[in-house]
Specification:
Elements: E1 2-3, E2 6-7, H1 18-31, H2 35-48, H3 61-87, H4 91-97, E3 112-115, E4 118-121, H5 123-158, E5 160-163, E6 171-174, H6 178-190
Antiparallel strand pairs: 1-2, 3-4, 5-6
């Protein structure tokens, strides 16, 4: 039905308990212009978010925000404690692990034990430094072994050929000049 180029809005009635109607009217007046707009928005909210109106959403945003802030503050204090108490003593060890030896300066002793008039280093710290030096040597040896193994594989796969013979067993032929062979011998002697 059209009247004067405007459409007529049709309404329908639904029966609710009086108390529920009063609550809805108060809610609707507070947030929306009409009751229809309020109902449409509520229905859209539940359909769009795929939640049931019977479910509870758990704690509200404020309590979640408070819990998250507490956890973040705890993490910040843990990180600060780690920076203060754990990274400073291990700086020299990390430098040795990355094979950058610390500067050759006279460094203060971390722990000293007095015996009469003599001062000696803490045995634990001394053994730790020895262990670090041994680990550094071990890494260097591993690197050298890897290089030697790579050189051997290069020779084995590129310089050695199998010669098949019509009489007897196949033979191996080394395809290398005398200069290359002498250089290889010298390199092995020097390493």
């Amino acid at each position: 039905m059209k009247r004067n180029n405007t459409t007529v809005k049709t309404f329908s009635n639904i029966r609710f308990k009086k108390k529920t109607v009063q609550r809805f009217q108060e809610f609707s007046k507070r947030f929306f212009k009409t009751h229809t707009e309020a109902m449409d928005t509520m229905l859209d909210f539940f359909l769009y978010n795929e939640i049931s109106p019977k479910e509870t959403l758990g704690p509200n945003a404020r309590t979640l925000e408070t819990n998250i802030k507490k956890r973040i503050n705890a993490l910040v204090s843990i990180v600060k404690d780690i920076e203060k108490n754990q990274t400073k003593p291990t700086t020299a060890m990390l430098q040795l692990l990355f094979e950058k030896s610390p500067a050759k300066q006279k460094q203060p002793r971390l722990v000293e034990v007095k015996k009469g008039s003599k001062t000696t280093k803490d045995p634990f710290f001394a053994t730790s430094l020895e262990a670090i030096e041994l680990r550094k040597e071990k890494n260097a040896l591993k690197r050298d072994l890897k290089e030697t193994k790579q050189q051997f594989e290069d020779i084995l796969f590129s310089k050695i050929n199998i010669m098949k013979s019509s009489f007897g067993k196949p033979k191996i032929q080394l395809d290398m000049s005398l200069k290359e062979l002498e250089a290889l011998k010298e390199r092995i002697k020097n390493s």
